[in-house]
Write a structure and sequence with these properties.
The protein is an alpha/beta fold. The protein folds into two domains: 6-118, 3-Layer(aba) Sandwich (Rossmann fold), CATH 3.40.50.10330; 127-265, Probable inorganic polyphosphate/atp-NAD kinase, domain 2 (Tumour Suppressor Smad4, Sandwich), CATH 2.60.200. The protein contains seven helices and 17 strands. The chain has helices at 16-31, 40-45, 56-62, 72-82, 108-116, 189-192, 277-285; strands at residues 6-11, 35-39, 52-54, 65-70, 89-93, 120-134, 137-144, 147-152, 159-165, 168-175, 177-181, 204-210, 220-223, 228-232, 240-244, 248-252, 257-272. Strands 1, 2, 3, 4, 5, 6, 7, 9, 10, 14 and 17 form an eleven-stranded mixed sheet that branches. A hairpin with a 2-residue loop joins β6 (120-134) and β7 (137-144).
Length: 294
Amino acid sequence: MPGFKTIGVIAKRRDARAGATLRELRALLRGDQRTLRVESATAEHYRLRGVRAVELQALAQSCDLVIVAGGDGTLLEAGRALAPAGVPILGINQGRLGFMVDIKPEDMRTSLREILKGRFVREQRLLLSATIQRGKRRRGPFLAVNDVVLRNQAAVRMLEFETWYGRQFISRHRADGIIVSSPTGSTAYALSGGGPVLHPALDALSLVPICPHTLSDRPIVIGCGQPVRIVLAGAESVRAMCTADGQVNEELRPGDTVEIRRARETLTLIHPANHDFFNTLRNKLNWGKGPDRA
């Protein structure tokens, strides 16, 4: 029985499809004589009986592999929690696009059997680490798989802020905010904001202004050798928000500094042996597709 012996499972809640996938996973893993652990909130939500339910942090410490049945949002939450322990994650797509959860439910049995035989691709993804400095008070670090975003809380006002790369001043911006994206996040919010797609093997970040007032304020790509610092300016009444993966939120005030750097932790993803990043882009973004011509 090569490969992963103790396998954890996390499923998207409030989704009947994920529940069906979860039960099929349970039967498949038991039939293959793997030790199964189910995240406690998942087990409770789907009222699973006869399984060992453990908290998320304990799952990271006790498993060789964690399977996430859900969308990219479910994997983002799991990834931030599991990455510090180094446990690899395999994604079953129960969402919409699914750039990271790349196994279709109908292919799950075939793909999982191959992976459990040792035929798979292991991929390391860089993570972001963000801290917020307000005077002498420091908050964080906050991990992010996709992006760290600074955004105005007021719907009809722009923010003013400075960006720095280490000690090098980049620019002063007037915009709705800015997205600092990892290569993984370059196909998420940053892509919607006009940012470039980054190959996941790159040691790079993209800075994507959100609706900038100056049309020449364009996205840029930088290396990970220095931290990015964003200093919020403006009147005392200005209120902004710093978010990690759109799931962790911290309020910002003028004078606050957000520092984003490459995290020491990495996210380990497991893919089927035939995984191809460019094929994923073609399928998810409909590249190179159109009406057939005779």
